[in-house]
Amino acid sequence: MKPFDVEPKVYMRDTISNIYKILKYSTWESAETQLKQLPIRWDSFTVNQVLKTHPPMEKAWLFFNWVGKVKSFKHDQFTYTTMLDIFGEAGRVSSMKYLFQQMQEKGLKIDAVTYTSILHWLSKGGDVDGAVETWEEMRGKGCFPTVVSYTAYMKVLFDNQRVKEGTAVYKEMLQSGISPNCHTYTVLMEYLFGAGKLMKDYFEYCWLPVC
């Protein structure tokens, strides 16, 4: 009979779910007391998973600050980026920028995932120039974009009628050896069909095999 080796994963899933319920349904004073009583060794994975359950934004921020003071725990690029996403989704761009500045001051690693998140939410908030500056900063820092980064930036440009720039980014992605994914093709199709382009134009953009 094989040993039952999935229990730790189930336990952690249940623990994360329990923490989410504490943050969602309790006042912060009550939540803080309950969190202190949990038999948990806080680490980046656990904290990140809690934040990814998307508790109410205010509670997420209070939790982020509280756990940052727990002995032996330190926030890293992953927990910061997830908190950035929460602020961005809530339209709290100034708070998102504040966290990004903290990451820089603390010397935390800032990768393409973080930059992509920031430029996405800046664009969503109407700051297209800020999104462009974020992309340029990422490239200037020697941070190599992923297919997700390229696709997100292309969408920002196409959605704001910056067609030549979007086309140049797509060509740069191909030249760098990064293959488009399904989402990349979707972004291209949305632009081409929305602009009334012919089907042959689509194949000129997407000459690589469709995923």
UniProtKB/TrEMBL annotation:
InterPro entries the UniProt entry points to: PPR_rpt (IPR002885), TPR-like_helical_dom_sf (IPR011990)
Highest taxon, organism lineage: Eukaryota
Highest classification ranks of the organism: Eukaryota, Viridiplantae, Streptophyta, Embryophyta, Tracheophyta
Annotated Pfam families: PPR_3 (PF13812)
Provenance organism: Gossypium davidsonii
Protein name as annotated: Pentatricopeptide repeat-containing protein
Record key words, sorted: Repeat
Gene3D superfamilies tied to this protein: Tetratricopeptide repeat domain
PPR repeat ranges per the UniProt record: 76-110, 111-145, 146-180
Membrane-spanning residues: none
Family recorded in the similarity comment: Belongs to the PPR family. P subfamily.
